[in-house]
Amino acid sequence: MQLIQGKLIADQIKEEIADEVKKLTEQGKKRPHLAAILVGHDGGSETYVAHKVKACEQVGFESTLIRFEENISENELLEKVRELNADKDVDGFIVQLPLPSHISENKVIETIDPSKDVDGFHPINLGRMVIGLPSYVSATPAGILELIRRYNIETAGKHCVVVGRSNIVGKPMSILLGQKTNPGNCTVTMCHSRTKDLASITLQADILIAALGSPEFVTQNMVKEGAVVIDVGTSRVASTETKSGFRLKGDVKFDEVSPKCSYITPVPGGVGPMTIVSLLKNTLLAAKGEVY
Ligand code: NAP
């Protein structure tokens, strides 16, 4: 079994991005600028956004964090999005999800200028990705592809089973691995909460991607000997052993599943750090005008 060290790869990619930023500034160009909008005080969202801002600092990007209280109106938020669309200094921006229930996430996403949508959530970016045009690819699937690429994991002709069909992870992941590309050329099965006899399908997976958000759901009797297992899940589970009072748990029961795998990602330190560097990469592409 080989551990896929997402944190290590993410650190390497950050160095590569920092080198590119240095080259840009040496050419007299401005630093890439990522802005993030955070609404409310959800613990998970606070942590993710703090990590994103810190990662920007590490690679030499400019970053701006815009905070609103939970009770901001949908119109006020849309106004801010339009302001960022028009702000020439901002290359790309994200609106951290989830949003409070009185705000339509789809409306917010559709209001973001696709050329600044570095999360890759806008329907135009998703659509362009589906037909193979240059686009910002959603950060988590992009990070997983990069891990597969850097570990030289063979994908062509493999059966890939994706558990989860969210618009930000499961769906784009299924499409990307089924594309006529490398990595890609997989035969893909996408599963969800209405899938019957899930274990009989996951057992067929050469590559199993667990993105359902249910801690330690995937057990050893659901995994084929020699499979590649990518664990996207990051559930906060109460713990008396940490200062924060919680631990991050993946969707895979690591201790019992890992001995059966050819490759597996840990949680934390697997997919999570790659998601952040993919966002940085998209911001760099935006600053260089390489997608639009
Ligand atoms: P999500 O919106 O929470 O949706 C979960 C998906 O899993 C849904 O499609 C759901 O099916 C399916 N599902 C739930 N229970 C299931 C079950 N028992 N059997 C089969 N399918 C089941 O998904 P998400 O936003 O992609 O998040 C998934 C997990 O990944 C969460 O733990 C999240 O925190 C984590 N995540 C991590 C990163 C990272 O950077 N590491 C990034 C994004 C998300 P239905 O569609 O039928 O409801």
What keywords describe this structure?
292 residues, alpha/beta, Rossmann fold, 2 domains, six-stranded parallel sheet, 10 helices, 16% strand, binds NADP nicotinamide-adenine-dinucleotide phosphate
Please, could you describe this protein's structure?
With 292 residues, the protein is of the alpha/beta class. It folds into two domains: 28-130, Leucine Dehydrogenase, chain A, domain 1 (Rossmann fold, 3-Layer(aba) Sandwich); 139-272, NAD(P)-binding Rossmann-like Domain (Rossmann fold, 3-Layer(aba) Sandwich). It is 39% helix and 16% strand. It contains ten helices and eleven strands. The protein has helices spanning 6-26, 43-59, 74-86, 105-111, 123-130, 139-150, 170-178, 198-202, 254-257, 271-288; strands at residues 2-3, 33-39, 62-68, 92-95, 159-163, 187-191, 207-210, 228-231, 235-238, 246-249, 263-264. A six-stranded parallel beta sheet has the order 1-11-8-7-5-6. It has a three-stranded parallel beta sheet with strand order 3-2-4, with helices on one face. Strands 9-10 form a two-stranded antiparallel sheet. Helix 7 links the parallel strand 5 (159-163) and strand 6 (187-191). Helix 6 (139-150) packs across helix 10. The radius of gyration is 19 Å and the shape is globular. The mean pLDDT is 97. Bound molecules: NADP nicotinamide-adenine-dinucleotide phosphate (NAP). NADP nicotinamide-adenine-dinucleotide phosphate binds next to helix 10.
Give the structure's gist in a few sentences:
With 292 residues, this protein is of the alpha/beta class.
